[in-house]
Amino acid sequence: MASDTRMNDVREELVVVPLSHPWRWISGAVIVLVIAGLGWSMSEAQIQWEHVPGFFTHPVMLEGLLNTIVLALAAQGGAIVLGVIIALMRLSANPVARWFAVGYIWLFRGLPVLLQILIWFNLALVFQNVSIPGLFSVPTNVVMTAFVAALLGLGLNESAYMAEIVRAGLSSVDEGQTEAAKSIGMTPMTTLRRVVLPQAMRVIIPPTGNNFINMIKGTSMASVIAFLELIHAANNISSRNLEIMETLFAAAAWYLVMVSLASIGQHYLERAYGPR
Amino acid sequence: MALVEAIGVRKSFGHTEVLKGIDMEVERGEVVCLLGPSGAGKSTFLRCVNHLETIDAGRIWVDGVPVGFRASGGKLYELRERDAAHQRRDVGMVFQRFNLFPHRTALENVMEGPVQVLGRGRAEVRAEALTLLERVGLAEKASAYPGQLSGGQQQRVAIARALAMKPKLMLFDEPTSALDPELVGEVLDVMTSLARDGMTMIVVTHEIGFARSVADRVVFLVDGAVVESGTPSDVLDNPQQPRTRQFLAKVL
Fold it and tell me: Is some CB atom of chain A closer than 8 A to the CB atom of B68?
């Protein structure tokens, strides 16, 4: 009988054979081989590896690094402020404000960043002065430096994305939270600041962190208008010594450092606003 | 003058008229229970008293002040939201789904109103908030987050949060409907002691036992209108209207 057989099995303490995973071993070996091959070809490459650390800390490269950081932080910071404003307009009871927000997002999200940067940089071709009649007037080519053009191009595009992220965050907070805040006499501003935004942050922070990482890399587009960010700095150095790959690798290392630091910051921010 | 006076209150959502001219008075210290089938407009009426909903017609006064308006020179001016917020300070509300602030501890939930709305000092408010938590039997849960509390505990914190504003009137919107049966008692006990202390309360509830033992008056609503009202013994034990009898036969 079946139950008898099972009893016997237990009594005789049969040897247990664990499931083997041959494909795990094979695929693992393939991956290691591919990496080893890539490493070997890198060592065989016609490149002066020993020059890379020197370019990494080259004064021009460091200036480019500083400009990259300033541009990324300014564009992202401005985009967050603008994004919150546009998101509030998008959710407002005023139909004009709602439509403006929809149009704003449509325009600045719809055009390539590179195109936006070029349009801002060349604005002087069609508008000679930036002015508010009766208040001030300045020549456009004085105001529209490479930094300002890159800031506007990157920041306005990002603000359209931020507006959608903030809107999703605000909408994710239960209506009951607003009602509870009202019921203890909170004004709309206090409700937003103390109750809704802190809870919306849980939804807002992860995509914002991803966008900031994209922003760091997106600053490289400012090189086309000769703004001295990392890529332009690398090109400046290599135009003199022709060590193109060496300088590009040095710039690449800086991008990885910045992105790693941003990821760590994002991790701690998410933990600070995480669920209790 | 009664603490709450409502005359001819009407409210529609879209084409559905939810309140069809409600008249009601609640005296100071009185406990009124609103009973009736779901969809009768009990919760909507309660939310109108707190101006969480605007009314389409009629008028509600709380302590002589028209809810949602400012009386001046023989006219009523509709309040902007900031000023409506000011009016709500005096009226506490407890929700079916608690609506505690999940990112703040029980103590912080209770302190939020006095500190952020009334601008009072944290130290003083903290002492009061701890006393309130003790009163609802949750002194030892002061540093717990809402997610760590049972439904009954959350609702008791919510009551303490409302009381922290020292309201003249407390509104309860089905405070035990979202609770497991064994947790209903602890919330009703807190509400009973609040009533004994003389708090004016309007309670939307399906707890007939609570209405019978605590309410001074029971108001029975059907389809957005008051069908019957009176002392609990009159309405619950000797209902005059067929609609009331029908309802009570089902829930008792």
Answer: no
Single-letter amino acid code for the residue at B164: A
CA distance A270 to chain B (A): 14
User: Are the beta carbons of B117 and A184 separated by less than 8 Å?
Assistant: yes
**Average pLDDT value for residue range A189-197:** 94
Whole-number mean pLDDT of chain A? 92
Q: Please tell me the pTM assigned to this model.
A: 0.82
| Three-state DSSP state, A243 | coil
- The C-alpha atoms of residue B129 and residue B126 are separated, in whole angstroms, by 5
Residues 6+ apart with CB under 8 A from B49: B4, B6, B60, B62, B67, B91, B169, B171, B202
User: Between A and B, how many residue pairs show a Cβ–Cβ distance under 8 A?
Assistant: 75
* Tokens linked to B46: 């309660």
Asked if B101 and A177 come within 8 Å (Cβ–Cβ), the reply is yes
Pairing of strands A136-139, B4-13: unpaired
Rounded to a whole number of angstroms, the distance from the CA of B81 to the nearest CA of chain A is 7
Contact status, residue B88 vs residue B99, Cβ threshold 8 Å: no
Q: Which of B86, B99, B162 shows the shortest C-beta gap to A176? A: B99
Do the interacting molecules here have an ipTM over 0.95?
no
Query: In angstroms, how far is CA B50 from the centroid of its own chain?
Result: 9
